[in-house]
Amino acid sequence: MSMLDLTLNTEENQEELSDTNSLLNRLGYDIVNGLNKIRKCYYWWHTYFETMDYCPKCGGLLREYNNDYEGANKVCETCNILLNDTH
Ligand SMILES: [Zn+2]
């Protein structure tokens, strides 16, 4: 797992971070995609407003994540998306 942790999590950009098609998420996801050519990395998906059972990228069912990283509890290994869904 990547130790690079870019945090843009502020109250001002919660809506943008929750939008699958926002420029911020598209750019961030592209960076993670590039890094995955070198080593396994995940894109942290922010969940502020709703419970997520399906991947915001591919729509597949999220799996339980048990690797004890920053409270993450769900993952899509296909899209390399990790999230903490405690709603
Ligand atoms: Zn996915």
Question: What would your notes on this structure say?
Answer:
The protein has 87 residues and is α+β, with helices and mostly antiparallel strands. It has one domain. Helices cover 21% and strands 13% of the residues. The protein is built from two helices and four strands; from the N terminus they run ααββββ. It has helices spanning 14-18, 23-35, and strands at 43-45, 63-64, 74-76, 81-83. A four-stranded mixed sheet has the order 1-4-3-2. A hairpin with a 4-residue loop joins strand 3 and strand 4 (81-83). The longest helix is centred in the middle third of the chain and has 13 residues, at 23-35. It is globular. Bound molecules: zinc ion.
The count of strands amounts to: 4
Largest sheet: 4 strands, mixed
First-to-last CA distance: 25 Å
Q: How many distinct helices?
A: 2
Derived structural class = alpha+beta
**N to C succession of SSEs:** HHEEEE
**Beta fraction:** 5-15%
Radius of gyration: 12 Å
Low-confidence stretches: none
Q: Based on the structure, what is the oligomeric state of the protein chains?
A: single chain
- Read across the widest sheet, the strand sequence of neighbours is 1-4-3-2
Q: What is the count of distinct domains?
A: 1
Average pLDDT metric: 84
Assign a percent range to the helix content. 10-25%
Bound molecules: zinc ion
Q: Can you tell me the overall shape?
A: globular
Q: How would you describe this structure in keywords?
A:
4 strands, 2 helices, 87 residues, four-stranded mixed β-sheet, binds zinc ion, alpha+beta, globular
